[in-house]
Amino acid sequence: MLIVNNAIISDDIIEKHFICDIYHCKGICCIEGDAGAPLEENEIAIIEDIIDIVKPYMSPQGIETINQYGTFDYDVDGELVTPLINHEECAYVYFEKGIAKCAFEKAYEKKKTKFQKPISCHLYPIRISKYQHYDALNYHQWDLCKVARKKGLEEKITVFDFLKEPLIRKYGIRWYNKAKKEVDAFLKNKQNLTF
49 and 88, same structural domain? Predict the structure, then answer.
């Protein structure tokens, strides 16, 4: 593992390969699972501020869900998450040609809002566990993402490299540049040890 400022990066993020292939998986990560996507506290206020902008891109069932239950929910551990429609897909999902897509991202692409989507969604398959003085970044290996792992391996793209944009969004460009140097040094050192 690497420690960069207040973040601990697991070896899997550095060494494992991943490229999301939404046309193959159909965005199933927005549908499957036992809870909605994790939300950060500051995202709740943002979502409530922009919900009327996002609603036109949501499904009728998604709109009905948030009108009835609110813009966020809690999982079994009491953590903030997006609400689910009938315990299935995220309330902010809409379908386009059979692919589950994000209403937040659609509004962002249309330049209606500056909020791209919850950072946990943007960072997937990295999951962040928050502790008092640091974040632990771990690679969530889901069977549903087998094709993404295969594609990443074929194109030699690691989880860390694939998630450059959301990592910068979360921790800033200076953090990312520092992390990138340490990741490159870690991989070079590991390669040297194998010879």
Answer: yes
DSSP 57: G
Residue-number span of the structural domain to which 91 is assigned: 34-115
Quote the DSSP letter at residue 30. G
Number of domains in the chain: 2
User: Residue 168 in contact with residue 179, Cβ under 8 Å?
Assistant: no
**Which of 115, 147, 168 is the last residue in one of the domains?**
115
Q: What is the pLDDT of residues 128-187, one digit of tens each?
A: 988 889 999 999 887 778 888 999 899 999 999 999 999 999 999 999 999 999 998 888
* C-alpha–C-alpha distance, residues 175 and 190, integer Å: 22
What is the overall mean pLDDT for the chain? 90
Tokens of 102: 């994000």
